[in-house]
Write a structure and sequence with these properties.
The protein has one domain. It has seven helices and three strands. Helix 3 packs antiparallel against helix 6, helix 3 packs parallel to helix 7 and helix 6 packs antiparallel against helix 7. The chain starts with a strand and ends with a helix.
Length: 281
């Protein structure tokens, strides 16, 4: 059964001091599970803050990379090598900005924000396995028309040695930690105080902070250069993976498990694109 837990403490309907016995009556107390208006306002402010962190962190990192490569008003490089250099710098800047935010919040709250080792080593294997299972489902849907029609998809990147090495290292090692520090470290850690509750379905429990972070992760993958159905597919895929990454961040209390799972799915996507693009020709 689906249960909504907002994380608010239930109101007490008794008086241990015996005031009811003395004839004094308590005012009616709310009995529903909905949070009070003051909590709703603070949570709305927290969501706005998380949106600013997500889009602001990406915006600052993007323009830092462009400034370093040639100028603030410079457009993103279109050649494969230039674009790869840009992504390395952008994701490094995004991680640095996110770490700065985490250090500031850690100083105020004392929370770890996932900057610790997992509580159980097995969490890493489970996180990678479940993330790859989600990847297989969405990749099968994405490439099914190509496989049925024997029509090769475009190669994601050139099949040259520098391209293979550079993109494999980026997708298999760099992209996971840099994006997880922002979305699962900073944003979930920031939202956890305002959203202490969770969504429960049978044995599965997902915190509201994880759900909001996953939605933002999906929306950040929407691109103006794609058709609406392509954006819907990519956003749904990214949101689904974001839920997996967030759940294992929540269970392991560490960014290591979601970062390695993120690396695994992105590297698998890269290798799948290269393989199908080459062998369906």
């Amino acid at each position: 059964m689906l249960q909504l837990d907002w994380g608010d403490e239930p109101m007490q309907h008794g008086d241990s001091s015996g005031s009811l016995a003395a004839g004094r009556h308590l005012p009616p107390q709310p009995t529903d599970d909905a949070p009070p208006p003051s909590a709703l306002l603070s949570r709305a402010v927290a969501v706005i803050g998380a949106v600013i962190m997500a889009y602001g962190g990406v915006y600052l990192a993007r323009h830092f990379a462009l400034l370093l490569l040639g100028g603030w008003s410079m457009s993103i490089p279109q050649d494969d090598g230039g674009y790869l250099r840009y992504l390395y710098i952008e994701h490094g800047a995004m991680a640095a900005i996110s770490l700065a935010g985490i250090l500031l919040l850690r100083w105020r709250t004392g929370e770890s924000f996932g900057l610790r080792w997992p509580e159980r080593a097995g969490d890493i294997h489970k996180a990678v396995g479940i993330a790859l299972a989600v990847f297989v489902v969405f990749t099968a849907v994405n490439y099914l028309p190509n496989v049925i029609g024997r029509s090769p998809p475009p190669l994601p990147h050139p099949l040259t040695l520098p391209s293979i090495v550079g993109w494999s290292l980026f997708q298999g090692g760099w992209v996971g930690p840099s994006e997880e520090i922002l979305f699962r470290g900073l944003i979930i850690g920031y939202l956890a105080g305002a959203f202490p509750g969770s969504l429960k379905f049978r044995t599965l429990q997902i915190s509201w902070a994880t759900i909001i972070s996953a939605v933002l992760f999906g929306l950040i993958h929407v691109s103006a250069g794609q058709l609406w159905w392509q954006n819907a597919f990519h956003a749904t895929y990214a949101c689904s993976l974001g839920l997996v990454y967030g759940v294992w961040m929540q269970r392991s209390r560490s960014l290591l498990a979601p970062s390695l799972a993120h690396n695994a799915t992105d590297l698998a996507a890269l290798l799948t694109g290269w393989t199908l693009g080459a062998f369906l020709r």
